[in-house]
Design a protein that fits this description.
single chain, alpha/beta, Rossmann fold, 3 domains, eight-stranded mixed sheet, five-stranded parallel sheet
């Protein structure tokens, strides 16, 4: 066993290991590129042939990953994008980065993890490292993946190595990248942790080992729940301060001058992205197996999910003061992505706001330089981003700023919009008392 263990570690240290990343989305594709750039022969697996075709042609479908970067890696043969999962037989590491959405009743939907792990199990071989990166509840790696691999006859920690290492991607963050964000690693056994640590140690600046896969799974949930609960708290305070006539943004700015004991969080129109609106409820579901109610998580979810309705309510108030009804009103949304300067619309609050506006028979346009087409199962038909100019702004009865992209001309909006509902305080540097702006 010791010989196989040391051999597996050495292959990652000397970059001779062949790495396969399964799932080439916002977490998997950056990781794939980093392994390839670190000198590993890397295969990127995905079930979507359109994604694979784009990558093979040297094109990227994720905004902060350039096509030039992809093209260089493909041309150098460091990166091989493929839909052929039988090639897993050639990989020394299989890293799973697939979605973990919510099912009915906010229950975990692990079908992508199970299907992918089943494909890995079919080609599992001695000396291989398998890592799950998809965010999930504590126990998934040893309760779901481990039993799938037992039919191979290989013993975990001796013949092959199984671990969990949560993805920590933050698209468009200029201060941190895949390489510079510390990597938490927890193995099913200590040997599993050692091999996984060696694999990521060849890639990132710092590896943070923990005692188990369960601890690593819980660490990721803590990170996201921390943000979810604090955002809910500030959203609730925003609702209260609105009634009290207090500017919540001013209060946050003042509080943030304290050099210790305070971390600023900011209100918004609701939560978006794959992580924060979804992941906390994985722990809520798991907690019920231990006869435990996660009250903070449930309350935070209730507050955050109600914010799109609050935005619409504030819009209605503003229109009423102008003698207008929402029925038949022309509303322009600024931003469809869930956060600034990215193209990701997963769970974006703009989608729910559009739904609510359509239900009230408003006419809705949107402008987002990162999202030219908006199509989801929540909308009856696709919408297309309109060009932002003085004519489209002036022709709207109201403008709702949902996403505070950096390259939006907020002065133009302020100068031509009859009414602005600002959910991000994006107009603060430019607005004057004469501008008709409602904070929401």
């Amino acid at each position: 066993m010791a010989g196989l263990l040391e051999h597996a570690i050495r292959k990652f240290e000397d970059r001779s290991a062949r790495v396969g990343v399964l799932g080439l989305g916002y977490a998997g594709l950056p990781l794939t590129c980093c392994f390839a750039e670190a000198g590993f022969q890397t295969m990127g697996f995905d079930i979507d042939p359109a994604k694979i075709e784009q990558l093979q042609a040297g094109r990227s479908y994720i905004g902060h990953i350039s096509g030039e970067r992809i093209a260089q890696l493909v041309k150098s043969r460091r990166l091989k994008p493929t839909t052929d999962f039988s090639l897993l037989r050639d990989c020394d590491a299989a890293i799973i980065c697939v979605p973990t959405p919510l099912g009915e009743g906010r229950t975990p939907d692990l079908r992508f993890v199970i299907n992918t792990a089943t494909a890995v199990a079919e080609h599992l071989h001695r000396g291989e490292l398998v890592v799950l990166e998809s965010t999930t509840y504590p126990g998934t790696t040893d309760e779901i993946l481990l039993p799938l691999f037992q039919s191979s006859g290989l013993k975990v920690g001796e013949d092959y190595f199984l671990a969990f290492s949560p993805e920590r991607e933050d698209p468009a963050n200029p201060d941190f990248s895949t390489r510079t964000i510390p990597k938490v690693v927890g193995g099913i056994t200590p040997n599993c942790g050692r091999v996984a640590g060696a694999a990521y140690g060849a890639l990132v600046e710092r590896v943070v080992p923990v005692s188990s896969a369960r601890a690593a799974e819980a660490a990721k949930l803590l990170e996201n729940i921390y943000r979810c609960v604090n955002i809910a708290m500030i959203n609730e305070l925003k609702l209260l301060f609105e009634r009290m006539g207090i500017d919540v943004w001013e209060v946050i700015g003042a509080s943030a001058t304290k050099p210790f004991g305070f971390t600023p969080f900011y209100p918004g129109p609701g939560l978006g992205g794959h992580c924060i609106p979804v992941d906390p409820f994985y722990l809520t579901w798991k907690a019920k197996q231990y006869d435990f109610n996660t009250r903070f998580i449930e309350l935070a979810g209730e507050i955050n999910s109600g914010m799109p309705q609050h935005v619409v309510d504030r819009l209605i108030e503003g229109l009423n003061l102008m003698g207008k009804a929402l029925n038949g009103a022309r509303i322009l949304l600024i931003g469809a992505a869930y956060k600034k300067n990215v193209e990701d619309v997963r769970e974006a609050p703009a989608i729910r706001i559009i739904q609510l506006l359509h239900e009230r028979l408003a006419t809705v346009n949107y402008h987002d330089p990162y999202v030219p087409r908006l199509e989801t199962r929540h909308l009856e038909k696709p919408l297309f981003s309109v060009r932002l100019n003085s004519e489209i702004v002036a022709a709207s009865d109201a403008v709702i700023i949902v996403t505070d992209h950096a390259d939006i001309d907020y002065r133009l909006i302020l100068n031509h919009a009859p009414l602005i509902v600002d959910t991000r305080n994006a107009t603060a540097p430019y607005r004057k008392p004469s501008h008709r702006v409602i904070m929401a």
